[in-house]
Amino acid sequence: LVFDMREMLQSEENMTEDPIEYLKFWMNSIRLHAPVAPLLLVGTYGDVVKSRSEHEKVQDRISETVGQFKQVVGNNDNNLCFFPINNKSGDGKDAISAAIEKETRKQAFVNTKVPLRWLHTLDRILDRFEPYITFNEVREMAKTNQITSHSEVTNMLSLFHELGVIIYMPATAALANIVTKDPQWLIDCIGKVIRDPNIHGYNDERINKLGYTRDVDALVQRALVSQDLLEYLWRKDVGQVDFLIDLMQRTMLLSKWNFKSSENRDRMFLVPSMIEYVEPIEKNQVSASCDLKLNFNEGLPTGVYERLVCLCVAHSGGTKEPQQPKIGNSSAVIWFGKNCVQLSKVGQNVECAVESKTELPQILSILTSVLKKVNADVMNGGLKYNTLVDVEGSWISVTEAKEKNVRPWADSTEIKKEEAASLNLEAFLENL
Question: How does strand 394-397 pair with strand 386-391?
């Protein structure tokens, strides 16, 4: 994780943003997604901040924050918690390389025993010029190395996926058919959909000529993308459109939009990462006050709120007579059946206002189930939050509300069977 040492030595009046908060944000993100991965902190601009006394001042500034993260690898030779580097002269790079090699040798995966026939097959996969290869092509390669069973090929690919050598996610038929050997290809494809429209625009002349103007407007202004536009953006890989859609849905970068759209396209998808570019909508459209909040006291990770909205919208679209949601960059109005809910991102909280107060327990059950899915599939199980409910102006836990016999929490248990049938929540989540 790279940071600018000059910023750590600035006086508070000269700061545009707190560099410690920036560092803490990224360290929290790394701990969330890779909780046991060794982490090296690298301080740049060693040509400006080069004396031992300056390095010690940087150390004093960041040591309290760094001390909260056990996975940080210390610079023991210099008695620092970070590695200074001068990118002009290269001073400091040898220490970083040595630390990386030392930590790598400690990792269990380095000593994982792999059959030689698997490695020979991997070499053939990586020798291919194309960024991806089909599963059947891998099977043919594997046969030349005496790997004949489908299960062994799958186990081999799964291991190499875990080691980060390839990408193989056999969750759907389309995903199981493709082995990606060049992650940059996936990044480029996804980047054609998820992009900052203020920096990376589209070729307006070509878009207008081909009739995709309204489709692009829907993506930029409403975070909705049509399959027609996806096929245009991925025209160089037209045979892999189903694979890319499945991949983005599996990683919660897309979800189905089961509502009528003004674009009159057959298939539309909500793109959660594009929600931040959508115009805001007014709060308090459902209720004058917030009824419950999800408090992420260690920080609300980037993308969690957007994915929560995305999955709630997808679930809403599967209910009877779905009503089209209203989505803004930090607030969304969603209908679950006839019950209207507004979710809003406020600081480190996701606040929820519910039209029908008697259905608060049911709505909370939906939100926690969806967050459990996000936590398991995207956040490596490290997502932590507290659920608080409003009782006469005070925020207390659901357990405390039940103990105090506060309605509707006092008589809430699990969702009743007839309610569960109409929600079909478990089936919905299992099919994602």
Answer: antiparallel
The mean per-residue pLDDT over the stretch 210-232 comes to 92
Identify the band that residue 7 occupies on the pLDDT scale cut at 50, 70 and 90. Answer: very high
Report the b/e string of 83-113 with b at 16+ CB within 10 A.
bbbbeeeeebeebbeebeeeeeeeeeeeeee
Q: What is the pLDDT of residue 262?
A: 66
Tracing tokens 């809910």 back to the chain, one arrives at: 341
| pLDDT tens sequence across 230-245 | 999 999 887 899 999 9
Asked if residues 5 and 58 have their Cβ atoms less than 8 Å apart, the reply is: yes
Q: What phi and psi, each to the nearest 5 degrees, are found at residue 339?
A: -90, 125
Q: Is the preceding peptide bond at 19 cis, omega within 30 degrees of 0?
A: no
| pLDDT 10s digits, 110-161 | 888 899 999 999 999 999 999 999 999 999 999 999 999 999 999 999 999 9
Reported as half-sphere exposure (CB side, CA atoms, 13 A), residue 136 has a value of: 2
Average pLDDT over residues 64-68: 90
Q: Is the pLDDT of residue 330 over 50?
A: yes
Task: Kindly tell me the burial class for residue 235, based on how many C-beta atoms sit within 10 Å of its own C-beta (0-12, 13-18, 19 or more).
Answer: exposed
DSSP string, 335-354: EETTEEEEEEEETTEEEEEE
In this structure, are residues 260 and 253 in contact, taking their beta carbons and an 8 Å threshold?
Answer: no
Q: How many CB atoms lie within 10 A of CB 169?
A: 18
- Euclidean distance between CA atoms 390 and 397, whole angstroms: 9
The predicted pLDDT at position 415 comes to 42
The angle, 0 to 180 degrees and rounded to 10, between the axes of the packed helices 304-316 and 360-377 is 120
Which residue type occupies 126?
L
What lies within 8 Å, CB to CB, of 399 at 6+ separation is none
CA distance 73 to 104: 12
Task: Tell how many helices (H) and how many strands (E) occur in the chain.
Answer: 18, 15
Looking at the chain, how many residues does it have? 432
